[in-house]
Amino acid sequence: MKPLIFIFLFLLSLVSCSSPSEEKKTTDSISKTEEKETETPDSSLTYAIIKERKSKPLGNLTLKKEVDSCIRESGDMQIDEAVNSMLDLTKEHLNFSFGATGEIPGRPLQFNENCVGYADFFNMLMNYLVEQKGWQKQYVCKHYVGKIYFDGTNLNALFKNDPFFKDHDFNVIKNLRGGNDIAVDPSLYEYLGMKRVALKNK
Predict the structure, then answer these.
(1) How far is CA 106 from CA 58, 60, 109, 110, 121, in A?
(2) What is the per-residue pLDDT across 64-115, written as a single tens digit (0 to 9) for each?
(3) Contact at 8 Å (CB) between 111 and 95?
(4) Can you tell me the distance from the alpha carbon of 191 to that of 14, in angstroms, rounded to the nearest whole number?
(5) N or C: at which end does the chain have fewer Cβ atoms within 10 angstroms?
(6) Which CATH number is associated with domain 3-15+41-199?
(7) Domain positions in the chain
(8) How far apart are CA 146 and CA 184, in angstroms?
(9) By the 8 A CB rule, do 47 and 198 touch?
(10) Distance between CA 17 and CA 11 in Å, rounded?
(11) pLDDT at res. 174
């Protein structure tokens, strides 16, 4: 792994360690608090949208069955649970690669991907789930290219000589009825377990 990559991951890891720990509570209370904190975006880490990538349909029958199974097992699944399930499914099937991976015919169930592949994979899963749940008039998942800012500093600009870090791919689940959008970074979830990220104000 290149030194720049270590530095980049170190800067991102600072975000996950920035919140002070709380006092001990009951087991149930702790688990609920941790889940809530994990799903709350850290305001010091923000994502600025540059452009949108074209969405692709999910064609793999095995993956479709796995998404269908998640829906059945969850019962009355709501949007936050749906997003978390698809993040976990993405993490289960992909291994991160710090390099170009190219198009992989047939989208096999386990393969190496960079941030582009992670966002693409999650986008297909999420939009298929939205379709199966009948949520098309309320939600749509978008695949975006953008820049990452930490406390107002453009992290991508710090590594401008390395083409790998010129931008970053992530996803936004848009609420078509005017509610809150949900931004996620599937590749960052792989490394730091962060389920939500924040969008930078224009």
Answers:
(1) 10, 7, 9, 11, 12
(2) 999 999 999 998 999 999 999 999 999 999 876 544 444 443 444 444 567 8
(3) yes
(4) 12
(5) C
(6) 3.10.620
(7) 3-15+41-199
(8) 12
(9) yes
(10) 11
(11) 98
